[in-house]
């Protein structure tokens, strides 16, 4: 029977070898006769604390008190009471003597006295932390006295331990017992193990063993006295030696002094209830206590209160003790974000606190929460993550990025919000280096292909910038297949000047990727056209790029002549491409600067996106006037073209009228554009053929009967000439019979009839005059102004 009861109290373990924990190094101090050890779990290596109490035989009084403490600790649960995990009792024999040891396993903690020395807090920060700790211990004591009708009996500095998150917890329940004040017939000690308590910690009635007076006192009388002893030891910095030292109030804060004196009242009935102590707003209301308290009841706050709190939190955290912020506030914040109770601004505070951690601690304490947040459907959380990706992107492993982060981030490429699409694009500058080749080629490039024809000009520009930055992470085959088409066919022909400039710079930055044939036949012809671009910045970049690529060809030619193996690309680069990564990042953050100063500036907020869009609209508005000026200057010389605009459609190069078949949009990554459907001639021959075909549609003024065949010939030539340089800057060919009006209008002189192109042939019969009775029906001009021509014009439109 005794063994059964001992097993119930001591736990399921039958011996030390069966204890599922490893016992480590001891702490220098512990309560009473207990020893406090560090420990770890044998299952997962998680840290724990192990308390051990030894006695010579099973009937030892200390062991009886220890068993009482195990039982009480196992059954009493509260956030500010030490959490019980496991216990066991081991009996060992050494010759004729036996030794019994009780082991208690709890959550990892360390003695409060040791933690205070370790933190080394001073002045205000120390007082704020003490206020937080006393508030927690006060709640634990109030719970025992008022809710459970239990008396701890020995509240002091040694009975308080501290968790890794710097929470104070009450333990040492060996003396704990029920308060039986309502039992008038009881005459013995109410606390059977009160002899374990030091005399200096006992109130006068307990020293005299006046249990009658104790039972007539309120339940909190003994523990209120102990709480006063704890306050003295905290602010004096030393353990209480004798009761008379409690009169020394030099170190006690003035706001706490009245309550301290009431806790230590000589009359038990007049001692302050610990629940009343917690209502001392003057002492317990400080930044640290208020912040932690708000986090503890976060679920009870509305969205406005949460938003206001988290926006102020980064500044408040600067004023709090750094160690407490990292060990207490940071875990609370991470947990609230992970479980959805915190608002999006909390992520900014989390990352700021995380920046104070070491790289290893950041990966353990902050990064797992961030990875989980990428799966959130809250758009505000997603925006905040993308805005701060540069602060934590480097800390994530390639496997985590490729498997857990990118699939969620990629949904932003197709988001209806242009702001979110741009943030997703920018984030790839940090995440792309950690993606696998399969993800880069099979997924990311497809999204970038669509973004390069996005309706927002800033997004199109940043897509080109990004592609130039991540080109080094693509394999050689992908680079050969994608880069030239992306930079020349789309970027250099964009209506947005910064997008054309970005295409030039991206080509220069990736110059080592191209061989001599590609430079001479595909790159230089497209760049040379931009030397007469309307935008001065684009022209400047075009001239520099031409010089760079010509220098590359010249160097390779000289190496070939001297017998050396020619390099595939050049080593020299223009200054703008010396640091493309840095240039791209700065362009993503510039705001409010004109296009002349920041030609590749992209928007980092919704207003700036709108501004970029307005610039595109301005460019599109001014384009017709520029074209008109060119035609006015030279009506017959079509070899002096205007600055090359991009296609007028919003989807870039997806329309057939732009010389690219729509079928290519779905091929692989979107840039696999085959120049011709028929066998492709040599590049030199193709350019000659294009030059020969071009004047056919513009060299002479076509008549009304011959304009349609020439237009169809031009359209057929555009579909079969992908490398047609002039086609990219020419006006789109007409698709219907109503468009010859516009085409003819641009090449007609002032003395020609603008309606001749759509005029009907003269009537074969004589029309009857409208007003023959008045004698005016036979005018010679009547056939030219007749109703037949007006009707035919309106129907033709």
Automatic annotation (TrEMBL):
Positions of the UniProt region annotated as Disordered: 620-797
Biased composition (Polar residues): 695-709
Residue ranges, compositional bias (Basic and acidic residues): 662-671
Organismal lineage: Eukaryota, Viridiplantae, Streptophyta, Embryophyta, Tracheophyta
SUPFAM superfamilies: ARM repeat (SSF48371), Protein kinase-like (PK-like) (SSF56112)
Biased composition (Low complexity): 755-769
InterPro entries: ARM-like (IPR011989), ARM-type_fold (IPR016024), CIK-Related_Protein (IPR051177), HEAT_type_2 (IPR021133), Kinase-like_dom_sf (IPR011009), Prot_kinase_dom (IPR000719)
Species whose genome carries this gene: Camelina sativa
Listed name of the protein: N-terminal kinase-like protein
HEAT repeat residues: 366-404, 523-561
């Amino acid at each position: 029977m005794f063994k059964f009861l001992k097993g119930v109290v001591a736990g399921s373990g039958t011996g030390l070898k069966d204890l599922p924990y490893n016992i480590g190094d001891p702490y220098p101090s512990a309560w009473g006769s207990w020893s406090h050890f560090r420990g770890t779990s044998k299952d997962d290596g998680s840290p724990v604390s192990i308390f051990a109490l030894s006695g010579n035989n099973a009937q030892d009084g200390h062991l009886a008190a220890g068993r009482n403490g195990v039982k009480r600790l196992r059954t009493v649960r509260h956030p500010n009471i030490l959490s019980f995990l496991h216990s066991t009792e081991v009996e060992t024999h050494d010759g004729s003597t036996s030794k019994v040891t009780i082991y208690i396993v709890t959550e990892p903690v360390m003695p409060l006295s040791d933690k205070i020395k370790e933190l080394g807090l001073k002045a205000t920060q120390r007082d704020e932390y003490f206020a937080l700790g006393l508030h927690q211990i006060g709640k634990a004591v109030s719970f025992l006295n008022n809710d459970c009708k239990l008396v701890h009996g020995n509240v002091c500095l040694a009975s308080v331990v501290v968790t890794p998150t710097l929470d104070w917890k009450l333990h040492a329940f060996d003396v704990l017992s029920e308060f039986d004040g309502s039992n008038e017939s009881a005459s013995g000690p109410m606390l059977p193990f009160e002899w374990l308590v030091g005399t200096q910690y006992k109130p006068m009635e307990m020293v005299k063993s006046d249990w009658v007076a104790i039972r007539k006192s309120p339940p909190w009388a003994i523990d209120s006295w102990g709480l006063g002893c704890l306050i003295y030891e905290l602010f004096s910095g030393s353990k209480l030696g004798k009761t008379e030292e409690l009169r020394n109030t030099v170190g006690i804060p003035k706001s706490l002094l009245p309550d301290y004196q009431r806790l230590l009242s000589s009359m038990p009935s007049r001692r302050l209830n610990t629940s009343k102590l917690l209502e001392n707003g003057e002492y317990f209301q400080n930044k640290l206590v208020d912040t932690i308290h708000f986090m503890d009841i976060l679920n009870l706050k509305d969205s406005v209160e949460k938003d206001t709190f988290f926006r102020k939190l980064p500044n408040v955290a600067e004023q709090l003790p750094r160690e407490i912020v990292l060990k207490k506030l940071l875990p609370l914040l991470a947990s609230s974000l992970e479980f959805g109770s915190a608002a999006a601004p909390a992520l900014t505070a989390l990352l700021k606190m995380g920046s104070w951690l070491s790289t290893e601690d950041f990966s353990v304490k902050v990064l797992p929460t961030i990875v989980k947040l990428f799966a959130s459907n809250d758009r505000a959380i997603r925006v905040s993550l993308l805005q701060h990706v540069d602060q934590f992107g480097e800390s994530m492993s390639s496997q985590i990025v490729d498997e857990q982060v990118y699939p969620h981030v990629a949904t932003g490429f197709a988001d209806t919000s242009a702001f979110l699409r741009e943030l997703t694009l920018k984030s790839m500058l940090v995440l792309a280096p950690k993606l696998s080749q399969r993800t880069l080629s099979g997924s990311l490039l497809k999204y970038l292909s669509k973004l390069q024809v996005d309706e927002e000009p800033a997004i199109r520009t940043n897509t080109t910038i990004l592609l130039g930055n991540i080109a080094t992470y693509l394999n050689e085959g992908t680079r050969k297949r994608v880069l030239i088409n992306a930079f020349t066919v789309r970027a250099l022909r964009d209506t947005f000047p910064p997008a054309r400039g970005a295409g030039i710079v991206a080509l220069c930055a990736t110059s080592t990727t191209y061989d001599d044939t590609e430079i001479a036949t595909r790159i230089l012809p497209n760049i040379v056209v931009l030397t007469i671009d309307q935008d001065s910045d684009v022209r400047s970049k075009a001239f520099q790029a031409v010089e760079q690529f010509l220098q590359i060809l010249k160097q390779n030619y000289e190496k070939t002549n001297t017998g050396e193996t020619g390099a595939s690309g050049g080593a020299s680069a223009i200054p703008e491409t010396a640091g493309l990564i840095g240039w791209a990042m700065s362009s993503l953050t510039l705001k409010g600067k004109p296009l002349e100063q920041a030609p590749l500036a992209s928007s980092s907020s919704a207003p700036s996106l709108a501004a970029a869009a307005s610039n595109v609209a301005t460019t599109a508005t001014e384009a017709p006037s520029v074209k008109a000026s060119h035609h006015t200057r030279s009506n017959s010389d079509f070899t002096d073209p205007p600055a090359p605009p991009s296609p007028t459609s919003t989807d870039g190069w997806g329309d057939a009228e732009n010389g690219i078949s729509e079928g290519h949009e779905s091929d692989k990554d979107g840039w696999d554009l085959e120049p011709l459907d028929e066998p492709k001639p040599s590049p030199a021959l193709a350019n000659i053929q294009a030059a020969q075909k071009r004047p056919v549609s513009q060299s002479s003024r076509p008549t009304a009967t011959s304009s349609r065949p020439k237009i169809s010939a031009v359209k057929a030539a555009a579909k079969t000439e992908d490398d047609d340089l002039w086609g990219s800057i020419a006006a789109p060919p007409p698709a219907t019979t109503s468009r010859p009006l516009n085409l003819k209008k641009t090449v007609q002189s002032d003395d020609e009839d603008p309606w001749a192109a759509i005029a009907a042939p003269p009537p074969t019969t004589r029309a009857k005059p409208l007003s023959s009775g008045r004698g005016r029906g036979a005018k010679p001009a009547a056939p030219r102004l007749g109703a037949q021509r007006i009707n035919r014009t309106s129907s033709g439109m």
